[in-house]
Write a structure and sequence with these properties.
Layout (H helix, E strand, L loop, with lengths): L2 H67 L6 H18 L7 E11 L2 E12 L1 H12 L6 E9 L6 E12 L19 H4 L2 H5 L35 E9 L2 E8 L4 E5 L4 E2 L2 E7 L3 E3 L2 E6 L2 E6 L2 E6 L8 E2 L14
Antiparallel strand pairs: 1-2, 2-4, 3-4, 5-6, 6-7, 8-9, 9-12, 10-11, 12-13, 13-14
């Protein structure tokens, strides 16, 4: 090998050595740096998640504090007592009698971090005042939910019976918050309350009455007048309502043949006798002693008294024994 070949071989060897050195430096220095960059990226991602969770935690803690400030108390016993006092105040504010309502404490599901408590409420009163109560309870500032609402006709004419559950929360453990003295500020003069007047004006519990029949066209014979006591027979006349309006009992009798409703008051003639009064005592039904009948019309025929239960026809009238007469009626001449 001459000098020139030796020079070329040295140059090639130097190039190869430099290449190997470069790969070695890369493997020794650059690869750990890349690995370090990856670890830094993973750490930054974890820190970002932690910061997001931290912000969410403080936001949730703030919302929880707002909820706790709107609860009645931090303990079940104290919250139950305060919510019961609030219910009493709202019943009176709605124009209802406190003694006319029963309140039974109820404890519902225990969820994580809170317990659901409340009251099952039941009572009778005029529909207007029941709507007042539901409105006032809905506008109370405390955390609450009203559910299982049921409204039906009451036992006394002109009243309805309401049943519902008023529920609230007790947070446990509750964070330390600066409580404020919450006060129910809703009144019956609020514009939002007046929007509910249509519920009362519709009189949803008054018995259904069919629209009067179209009068006959000129030249056509008019339908014969149908009244109790004449054909087509007393079985075609049903007592559909024994309401009381402005303190005066009113008897509604449905003419099933003529498809119209006749109205009577005490002193009017009905079913061959004179209406003595409307009896609102809850008594066992004559056809089924296991069921209750809450009203009936009392007729005086001669010296005897007869009764027709609400929902029955005039053909179902029955003679009353002296023990079945309402108080004071037997003494009347």
């Amino acid at each position: 090998m001459n000098a020139r070949e030796k020079l070329l071989a040295g140059i090639v060897g130097g190039v190869v050595g430099l290449a190997l050195l470069a790969f070695g430096v890369r493997a020794i220095v650059i690869a750990p740096l890349r690995d370090l960059d990856k670890r830094i990226g993973v750490a930054r991602e974890k820190i970002g998640k932690i910061q997001t969770q931290r912000r969410a935690y403080f936001a949730a803690e703030e919302r929880l504090g707002e909820v706790v400030r709107r609860t009645f108390a931090d303990t079940v016993d104290e919250a139950g007592a305060r919510s019961g006092e609030m219910l009493t105040r709202q019943i009176l504010a709605a124009g209802l009698r406190e003694t006319g309502f029963t309140r039974t404490p109820v404890s519902r599901n225990t969820v994580r971090g809170a317990k659901e408590i409340g009251w099952n409420v039941q009572g009778d009163g005029p529909l207007t005042n029941i709507v007042n109560l539901l409105y006032l309870l809905d506008r109370t500032p405390w955390v609450h939910r009203t559910e299982n609402l049921s409204i039906a006709a009451g036992e006394v004419p002109g009243t309805v019976r309401a049943r519902f559950s008023y529920l609230t929360l007790v947070v446990d453990p509750a964070p330390e918050v600066q409580r404020t003295n919450l006060v129910a500020t809703a009144t019956l003069e609020d514009p939002a309350r007046h929007l509910l007047n249509s519920i009362v004006s519709r009189d949803i519990f008054r018995p259904y009455m069919r629209r009067p029949a179209t009068p006959p066209q000129p030249g056509q014979p008019a339908a014969p007048f149908s009244r109790p006591g004449v054909p087509p027979g007393p079985e075609n006349f049903r007592v559909v309502s024994l309401s009381e309006w402005d303190g005066q009992p009113e008897i509604h009798v449905r003419d099933l043949a003529g498809q119209k409703t006749l109205r009577f008051r005490p002193g009017d003639e009905l079913a061959g006798g004179v209406i003595a009064l409307v009896d609102y005592r809850p008594l066992p039904r004559p056809d089924n002693a296991l069921l209750q009948s809450y009203s009936r019309v009392i007729l005086r025929i001669g010296t005897d008294y007869w009764a027709i239960e609400r929902g029955r026809t005039l053909a179902d009238k029955r003679k009353l024994a002296a023990a079945e007469l309402p108080p004071g009626l037997a003494a009347k001449p």
